[in-house]
Amino acid sequence: MTLAPLTLLGRMTLAFMTLVGSVTMFATQAVVQGFRPPYYRQQIVRQMLEIGYYSLPVVGLTAIFTGMVLALQSYTGFARFSAEAAIPQVVVVSLTRELGPVLAGLMVAGRVGAAMAAEIGTMRVTEQIDALTTLSTDPFRYLVAPRLIAAVLTLPLLVLVADLIGVLGGYLVAVYKLDFNDLTYLKNTIDYLQFDDVFSGVVKAAVFGFLIALMGCYQGYNSKGGAQGVGAATTAAVVSASILILTFNYFLTEAFFAR
Amino acid sequence: MNAALTKISLKGVRKSFGPKKVLDGIDVEVDAGQSLVIIGGSGSGKSVLLKCILGLLRPEAGSVRIDGEETVGINGTDRARVMKKFGMLFQGGALFDSLRVWQNVAFGPIQADGVPAPKAKEIALAKLGAVGLPPEVGELYPAELSGGMQKRVSLARAIAREPEIIFFDEPTTGLDPIMADVINDLIVKCVRDLGATAISITHDMASARKISDRVAMIYEGKLIWQGATAEIDQSNDPYVDQFIHGRAEGPIKMQVRKL
Ligand SMILES: Nc1ncnc2c1ncn2[C@@H]1O[C@H](COP(=O)(O)OP(=O)(O)OP(=O)(O)O)[C@@H](O)[C@H]1O
Ligand SMILES: [Mg+2]
């Protein structure tokens, strides 16, 4: 065991490349299998409920407080050069383009990504995945594909809801605390909002949904050992999904920046 | 012997985990309709051998033929087609804990064979009855059952699709002596009535004598003895003698240190 910096750097690079390779292969297999029948509709519906409906409270709370804080903080800044009128636009653009998808993504990664890794990991270490195979059921089709499909479909809806609730939060603070006119606030919010603001957020949400489900399934599917292995898989799923969300967020933002 | 009747044929199967050689050149043939029991010490690789035949683990070397067809390295639809021939009772049960007991038993018929749910439930309840479980148990979840009940549900699931080849990994471990004998009878009946080919693993010599036509003993990665069940007492093999009489003294040394 040596700690020579170059050796360490080389080892880490190799480990990282191996990981990227195996995640990519896992994703490819999941997508290829997911498009082939049989489709497990019940599984997809169950996962959509789990990801969408049951995440509403968490995501709603995050959104409303974020909207409220946005209104307050941008007031602090904008009041210094008498630009308070821009607050409705700032709130809605920040939410739809950026904070809605990123915060919802991170919350769902913590809630759903962890649950997926724990469930699939437990199935792995108790041989339930082997049992699926012996019952002629492809685990990629039965376990992984429904989660990926459900996450990609559901996260955009969740983010649209988060956008609405966030705007409501900003509105409440602006009208009841900062003495904005309620109708003017709403009118400004809507008038300056562009289709691309919402659209780019929705695209981000779909990508984040894919990443969350992918990492949850990947870490769970490859977990080893007993309870400890499942615990490690759960942590790895949340951490890797969060990092990927933040990384992809930059590149998606750049892709939409020109528009 | 007639080659056409050979259901399962293994030649030179090797499997290691890291530096640890678990299977070190296994050769065995099982004829159609025959029941083979594998005996051997704990950790000698019996479960690994079954998983290699099923394709859940991939042997590093050797060939596994099912009905004359090479199955090492096959994937996708070919694997699924071969898998349809198998039923497997896992040592740990491997029941799906998110599904009710009857759904576990009906899983193969519903998901893999497309039997409609009501019909599959009937089949499931009949199989549960055969392993001595009343219909009420069908509505419970696996976590609500005792260890022995889980084992029997797992057995019911393994035989639900009336497979051509059935593997039983320690089917009677953890059962009371009476229920163990009921299960022995059931295994014999499956093999006779369905004409299935069976490989069972057991530490219980009474059960081994009852359910097998042939016995094979695994020791240090090799099958050191195989022969007809009736000949097992005249094997003149010191390893086999020590094992079937359960003596601590003999050529087989347990890796234990005196207290
Ligand atoms: N997935 C695995 N990874 C690493 N080692 C394994 C794995 N599965 C089995 N082994 C090792 O292979 C050896 C044989 O295991 P196996 O489960 O086949 O034993 P067994 O004969 O079924 O024992 P028992 O009668 O106790 O069930 C053991 O030493 C075990 O540590
Ligand atoms: Mg075993």
From TrEMBL, chain B:
One of its GO terms (molecular function) is ATP hydrolysis activity. The keyword Ribonucleoprotein does not apply. This is ATP-binding cassette domain-containing protein. Belongs to the ABC transporter superfamily. Residues 8-245 form the ABC transporter domain. Keywords: ATP-binding, Nucleotide-binding, Transport. Gene3D superfamilies: P-loop containing nucleotide triphosphate hydrolases. Pfam families: ABC_tran (PF00005).
